[in-house]
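ARCHIVE CARD
CATEGORY: sequence design from structure
SOURCE FIELD: tokenized fold
FIELD CONTENT:
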């Protein structure tokens, strides 16, 4: 351990493993340390099923585990999230070649909650015209909006239709196409994946890009814009760890981190017991640097084991449901995700649902009730409330670059934004996506 590295990465959470892979591919000499014995940190996949019960304080011996099928068939993600088929994480996986370690399955449907019911999210013209989410005239207006988004090109003002994306805000864009409040609501939350309504007052370029990403992702694989890896998300950090190792990265699991050594305000190394590894930079999650982060809120997550699909989803074996905040008089959306035995994350005939949101009250469990009510009978619930942390500084002075905690969203776009932002701050340049191939299967 007593040598010098360009970067030391602490923690094997997904963000840290992605950064380790990116830095190694970029030619940096990387040492990766984690105090845990396993990959994934707070975003690990738990197997066998007994370990999940134990983790949440249940005694597996007092539960009839046998009714859940073979215990080893379960790989339950602590923080499940879907990958947008055309999103940043998939591009990153393809660009870095990590796809060769993973196999994906398309998510069967994306739904939105309105007036106490769930509806399939229409994301192309055909679905928009047959959707019961909107009336006939509204469907035509929404179709015009989708066509505008698909044709929009930031570099070609002819495609702007008299809408300046830098000065027109989200609210004005909806008005321009005559979209009513409910349509604007599901567009902003279920297609553009905003977590609250602040975007309505901001320039609409980001909104257009987000809806475009949703539509392009949907066009890639058909049923929905989302993908999920077989055997759960725990495969992702391991894939990036392998990548880092191929490019010379060194890994040490189950290794104590006793001190991050800082001299004259700048990091110079990491100490474990009597050993010290010197470095120019440190990348880590908030748990390693309590004095350099601030708490910005909490997330409640409830993992539910089901022996049936979610009602009213046409028996989908996987899906996402977004409950926009306005529909349940909240500030933040509620997210519901479902994966199942078809993803090799549960025993035959079983399903894993997750309901999550950003905490707003002193009774977090009551806040997710609208999501839980959609699931039908629940065999077992595992509830956790986690603190959300953000770094106090950008890291450029200390050269300590800290990731943000995982938010409540059920997709990876915010995770990727954070990783790419950290990479930019740490290296002074954007990660180069230009070499990305066009299809997940190209790399097989």
């Amino acid at each position: 351990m007593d040598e010098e590295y360009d970067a030391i990465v602490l923690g094997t959470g997904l963000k840290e493993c992605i950064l380790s892979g990116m830095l190694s591919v970029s030619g940096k000499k990387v040492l990766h340390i984690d105090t845990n014995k396993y990959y994934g940190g707070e975003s690990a996949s738990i197997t066998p099923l007994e370990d999940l019960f134990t983790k949440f304080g249940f005694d597996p011996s007092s539960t009839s585990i046998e009714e859940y099928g073979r215990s080893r068939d379960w790989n339950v993600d602590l923080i499940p999230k879907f990958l947008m088929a055309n999103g940043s994480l998939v591009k990153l996986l393809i660009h870095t070649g990590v796809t060769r370690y993973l196999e994906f399955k398309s998510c069967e449907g994306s739904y939105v909650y309105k007036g106490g019911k769930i509806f399939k999210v229409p994301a192309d013209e055909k679905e928009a015209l047959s959707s019961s989410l909107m009336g006939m005239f509204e469907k035509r207006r929404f179709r015009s909006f989708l066509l505008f988004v698909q044709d929009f090109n930031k570099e070609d003002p002819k495609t702007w239709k008299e809408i300046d994306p830098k000065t027109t805000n989200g609210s004005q864009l909806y008005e321009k196409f005559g979209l009513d409040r409910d349509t604007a609501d599901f567009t902003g939350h279920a297609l553009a994946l905003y977590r609250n309504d602040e975007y309505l007052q901001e320039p609409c370029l980001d909104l257009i890009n987000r809806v475009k990403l949703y539509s392009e992702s949907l066009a890639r694989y058909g049923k929905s814009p989302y993908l999920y890896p077989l055997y759960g998300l725990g495969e992702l950090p391991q894939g990036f760890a392998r990548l880092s190792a191929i490019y010379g990265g060194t890994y040490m699991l189950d290794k104590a981190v006793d001190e991050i050594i800082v001299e004259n305000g700048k990091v110079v190394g990491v100490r474990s017991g009597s050993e010290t590894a010197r470095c120019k930079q440190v990348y880590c999650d908030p748990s390693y640097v309590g004095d350099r982060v601030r708490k910005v809120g909490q997330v409640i997550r409830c993992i539910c084991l089901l022996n049936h699909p979610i009602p009213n989803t046409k028996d989908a074996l996987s899906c996402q449901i977004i409950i926009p905040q306005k529909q349940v008089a909240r500030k933040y959306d509620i997210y519901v995700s479902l994966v199942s035995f078809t993803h090799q994350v549960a025993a035959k005939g079983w399903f894993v649902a997750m309901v999550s949101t950003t905490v707003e009250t002193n009774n977090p469990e009551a806040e997710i009730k609208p999501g839980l009510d959609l699931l039908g009978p629940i065999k077992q619930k595992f509830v956790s409330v986690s603190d959300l942390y953000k770094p106090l500084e950008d890291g450029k002075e200390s050269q300590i670059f800290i990731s943000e905690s995982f938010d409540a969203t059920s997709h990876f776009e915010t995770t990727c934004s954070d990783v790419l932002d950290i990479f930019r701050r740490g290296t002074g340049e954007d990660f180069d996506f230009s070499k990305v191939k066009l299809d997940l299967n190209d790399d097989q």
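CARD ANNOTATION: Residues 205-221 form the longest helix (17 residues). The two ends are 35 Å apart (CA to CA).
SHELF: design records, drawer C
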